[in-house]
């Protein structure tokens, strides 16, 4: 940047670098999505096209920001987890939030036609973003537990509500009154006894949300001598699983270590390179 007498105005910029050695979570939320979904005729209580589009947009963010170790999404929100040792954009809150939100939104628009076909995008979608720091692994995991429990609670309520409206021919006001004060067991009983719906059979993407992590897959390659072989390629994996119980974290230790699997593979290749001392 060229120097001039006006450069002093930079002194008014605030330093918004986030605390070091802490987990960073950027969460984006759809703005005005109640009207947006109505305008575009989203299916109730869940529109699988919209959820797959959210996942595609989130995968695009992971493709652009290599330090993200995990993303969790449900409904019109997505959370992106950066490890304690993340250095992206000098850990500046304004950079992280604006880049995640803008990349997600642009991908949502760009891939709209792949999931909604000939249904035109009639209004520009918007997502706000915030970033929160979490000092320990346990607190970061509790944050994700909170979001997944929220997914389950909201989905069970919405499943009951829209079943009462569409199949029970209730008005929205009457359906809301019918569900007032009910517990999880009451809702399960209502769905099964009145409509023959076993909530356990509801797809996991609706009940548990979507978990995006990094992984690898073997791809066929041919070197300049024409020799074919298989090599690992970094990919984004989409799961619909329980992230509250310990099993998920035991199966994916690279997440808490803050080392994405793609970085691990790169390190392994460097260590195996000719002339590298691996002792």
What does this structure look like?
Helix content is 44%, strand content 19%. The protein has 279 residues and is of the alpha+beta class. The protein has a six-stranded antiparallel sheet with strand order 4-1-3-2-5-6, with helices on both faces. It is globular, with a radius of gyration of 23 Å. It starts with 22 loop residues before the first strand and ends in a 7-residue tail after the last helix.
**What is the count of β-strands?**
6
Instruction: Calculate Rg over CA atoms.
Output: 23 Å
Please summarize the sheet with the most strands: 6 strands, antiparallel
Determine the structural class based on helices, strands and strand pairing. Answer: alpha+beta
Fraction in beta strands: 15-25%
Low-pLDDT runs of 5+ residues are: 271-279
Kindly report how far apart the N and C termini lie. 46 Å
Q: Percent range for helical residues?
A: 40-55%
Q: Which of globular, elongated, flat, extended, rod-shaped describes the shape? A: globular
Task: Report the order of strands and helices.
Answer: EHHEEHHEHHHHEEHHH
Number of helices: 11
Give me the side-by-side strand order of the main sheet.
4-1-3-2-5-6
Q: What is the arithmetic mean of pLDDT?
A: 92
